[in-house]
Amino acid sequence: MSEQTIEKLKKMKLSKFAEAYQDQKGKPEYQKMSFDDRLTLLVDLEYDSRVNHTIERNIRNANFYDSTACLERINYKPERKIDKALIEELSTNQYIEEGLNVVIAGASGCGNYVKLEIM
Questions:
Q1: Of 42, 55, 71, 103, which alpha carbon lies 20 to 30 A from 112's?
Q2: pLDDT 10s digit of each residue in the chain, 119 long?
Q3: Cβ atoms of 104 and 116 closer than 8 Å
Q4: How far apart are CA 89 and CA 106, in angstroms?
């Protein structure tokens, strides 16, 4: 019966759910868990997989110049005139909660001075 269930999950495109279910079958520590706890684990795995896949696809489709760029790797050399405190403030996303806009002015991709304002 479980093999039929796994096949049905795969046909419904719930592949991570099916893999995790198959993994749970053979491990006694999962047998000790309640149905709700096991179901929650399975659903969380499938959900996280889909969210991560969507993020990866969106990054790939965006054709970013550098899809590995991150705030931790920003070069704050003085000649770039980047306000580190402002970047750190923006990274909190507090401006979104406050309904503010971010205005970015400057040539894109040049690595030179860019003016950032929160309005």
A1: 55
A2: 688 999 999 999 999 999 999 989 889 999 899 999 999 999 999 999 999 999 999 988 998 888 788 889 888 888 887 889 988 999 999 989 999 888 877 776 666 656 667 77
A3: yes
A4: 20
